[in-house]
Amino acid sequence: MKTVCLPNYNIYIDRSFDNYDRFLSDLKGNKLFVVTDENVYFLYKDTFESKIKNKDIFWYVLIDGDCSKTSENALNIVDFLIKNKAKREDVLVSFGGGVITDITGFVASIYMRGINLVHIPTTIIGQIDSAIGGKTSVNYEHYKNVIGTFYDPKLVICETNYLKTLNQHEILNGHGELIKTGLIGNIDILNSLDNNDAVYNPLLISMAIEVKKGFVVNDYFDKSVRNTLNFGHTIGHAIETLTNFEVSHGEAVIIGMLKSIEAGIYLGITNPKLLNNFSEILKNIGYNVPKIKYSDYEKYLFMDKKSNDEGIRFVFLEDILKPKIEIISWSKLKDALVNTEK
Ligand code: GLY
Question: Which domain holds residue 217?
Fold first, then answer.
């Protein structure tokens, strides 16, 4: 078992844990309210229940996908908690991918001003990103993650065996975040990615969590260095919105990272050799980047929370492990992105 300790909670990582009671014994409430999606429910309801002996379990099952991450569903979960007489000392559990982690964390933070929260993420993105660092969110209308809070769980349990049932789309989704994490914080993560089974290795997941921890501990509220985790995300989020989430988050982040590297080289910020390194990494995971034009995603760039009328705080890489946050005007960014388009 690997354990990563953040100031307010621990993250336990292993291929599998026989029981969860040992982790939950410090939490007084007798009821466990588990929010999940229909895929995870179908695959792992029995597994989950076999790992809990000492609490009553109540399930809330959402449709799989980003379309479920709405303020309306958040209030529906509140309704479910009220109807089942949930108390603050009871435990709200997120059991699923990033969507489930984000919405459940959000509800935990608003229900009675804070109910015990435990994350049990079942996807790569969930384990290395969404469940770590206390960000919670729901989408509102077209605006992704526009409603949210910072709220820490009591603990996070990552079992890499859950990753074995991920489809190719979801593995690619995870690879996007793993590549980003490797590029900004630990080259060993990148070196592991040519091995197909690497993602099931608790060591890889813990290395990625350690990188995120470094940024979160130094800037919990995302005012400075935590922005680095946004590498590839400004353009990535715009592409997700443009394609109505047909392009997954991780895939959009890969496209966003490539465009950031190309723009960085054009602007003299990025070492040109990085483009070859990045192409090698994509070859290792067997991914071909689709062509998407600036004119198609431009209008969605302006929705980024790190922007204003003049420009945006944009993450470039000077080189591997050398991220650089630049405040760049919209016109300069446009010039770089358009002129590096193939
Ligand atoms: N997912 C980016 C962050 O937690 O800051």
Answer: 168-339
